[in-house]
């Protein structure tokens, strides 16, 4: 299996730089997500990994073997990587079995051996009963599972997935997430999964590379990204929360409840600093910071509120009970995270 190393990768189309000095070390067998808004360069980076696109700068290595950079470009078929696309990319004139077995045929695998390997891959994704079907007679989820089975037969070191769930509805996405987890567990391959959906990235990946304008903003576990975003941009992009400006007079980054309450109720201190308050860290209490409720959204198990602080800044919070708009309540903030820019 593969340790994947990207070192200062750069790529431009014409005069537009779409990937900029992007470096990452992906541990062998891990499941990583490239997460970022539309147009930030995720697919371009994935295509450079696959070998469909040349790198302009930097190098790509797998297990110490250089694949790209310094005038070298190993073609896609010699990288032992497999790519799964949003559009499934199945051949309509071949049935499920032949779609899955195509790469084996190219390698000259035949007869019983061919049949066994294809059926084993189809069983892994629970599709052996549909081996004779044409792809166009399958649902979206089934088509994506055929694409996974096709990937499985070639035993890749690295599996590259480009928004593979984007065409599926919400319910199917959840069950396909489980299929991906299982698929990753079985193959032991290194997975690089491109998505702009943070919930999907958080649910699937052990580590997430957050990208913005072709650059790496943060490379961390889902938990670290959520709790300790590096900067204001990542804090806005990941999860819900309020970014408040306070006059800060401490060097700590993780602020305790009493520290935040003190900062929110004073205007002393030399530096204006952004802090992140997650809605689950705000409690409605008898005595605390007075706020005025501006909006309410019913979320099933609780409501999500936006309220105004006395200095005009807005604070989001969750509360299990219905509060009237415009009413004043008191809250306590239990912790906050100082943002660096
Ligand atoms: N072949 C190309 N020629 C010119 N520009 C391109 C080409 N491919 C991509 N781009 C541009 O490069 C930028 C990054 O595109 P890319 O598809 O990598 O982004 P992305 O993050 O994957 O976006 P999305 O989530 O919308 O798929 C975009 O501005 C896109 O228009």
From TrEMBL:
The keyword Transport applies. It comes from the Bacteria. GO terms for cellular component: ATP-binding cassette (ABC) transporter complex. GO terms for molecular function: ABC-type transporter activity; ATP binding; ATP hydrolysis activity. Residues 4-238 form the ABC transporter domain. The keyword rRNA-binding does not apply. Pfam families: ABC_tran (PF00005), TOBE_2 (PF08402). Signal peptide: none annotated. This is ABC transporter ATP-binding protein. Keywords: ATP-binding, Cell membrane, Membrane, Nucleotide-binding, Transport. InterPro entries: AAA+_ATPase, ABC_SmlMolc_Importer, ABC_transporter-like_ATP-bd, ABC_transporter-like_CS, Mo/tungstate-bd_C_term_dom, P-loop_NTPase, Transp-assoc_OB_typ2.
């Amino acid at each position: 299996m593969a340790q994947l190393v990207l070192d200062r990768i750069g790529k431009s189309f014409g005069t537009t730089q779409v990937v900029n000095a992007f470096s990452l070390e992906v541990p062998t067998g891990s499941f990583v997500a490239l997460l970022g808004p539309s147009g930030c360069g995720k697919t371009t980076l994935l295509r450079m990994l696959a070998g469909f696109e040349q790198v302009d700068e930097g190098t790509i290595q797998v297990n110490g073997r250089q694949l790209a950079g310094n005038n070298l470009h190993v073609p896609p078929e010699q990288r032992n990587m497999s790519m799964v696309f949003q559009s499934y990319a199945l051949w309509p004139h071949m049935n499920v079995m032949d779609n899955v077995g195509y790469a084996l045929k190219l390698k000259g695998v035949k007869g019983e051996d061919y049949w066994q390997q294809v059926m084993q891959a189809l069983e892994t994704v629970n599709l052996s009963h549909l081996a004779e079907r044409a792809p166009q007679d399958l649902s979206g989820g089934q088509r994506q599972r055929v694409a996974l089975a096709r990937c499985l037969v070639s035993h890749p070191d690295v599996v590259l997935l480009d928004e593979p769930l984007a065409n599926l509805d919400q319910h199917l996405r959840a069950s396909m997430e489980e299929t991906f987890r299982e698929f990753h567990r079985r193959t032991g391959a290194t997975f690089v999964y491109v998505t702009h959906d943070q919930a999907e990235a958080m649910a699937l990946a052990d580590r997430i590379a957050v990208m913005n304008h072709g650059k790496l903003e943060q490379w961390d576990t889902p938990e670290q990204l959520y709790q300790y975003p590096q900067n204001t941009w990542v804090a806005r992009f990941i999860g819900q929360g309020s970014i408040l400006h306070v006059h800060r007079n401490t060097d700590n980054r993780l602020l305790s409840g009493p520290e935040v309450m003190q900062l929110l109720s004073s205007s002393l201190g030399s530096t204006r600093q952004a802090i992140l308050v997650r809605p689950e860290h705000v409690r409605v209490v008898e005595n605390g910071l007075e706020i005025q409720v501006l909006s309410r959204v019913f979320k099933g198990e609780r409501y999500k509120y936006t309220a105004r602080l006395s200095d005009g800044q807005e604070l989001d919070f969750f509360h299990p009970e219905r509060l009237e708009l415009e009413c004043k309540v008191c809250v306590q903030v239990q912790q906050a995270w100082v943002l660096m820019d």
